[in-house]
Design goal:
single chain; alpha+beta; two-stranded antiparallel sheet; 2 helices; 2 strands; Two-component system sensor kinase
Length: 55
């Protein structure tokens, strides 16, 4: 079976979240599967956020 390339799946998502100073957790939860991410919000990011996004 070929090895997944960097940046795919949960490992890649975790890496991208960590680069931004956040954390990601994933695993079984209440009979399903949960993905949870926390990212810091900076003044620059808040100012450039799309009006459709809620901080």
């Amino acid at each position: 079976m070929p090895q997944p390339s960097p940046g795919n799946g949960l490992r890649g998502l975790t890496e991208r979240v960590q680069v931004l100073g956040g954390e990601l957790r994933a695993g079984p939860a209440d009979g399903g599967f949960e993905v949870w991410a926390r990212l810091p919000v900076t003044a620059a990011a808040s100012a450039s956020a799309s009006p459709g996004l809620v901080a």
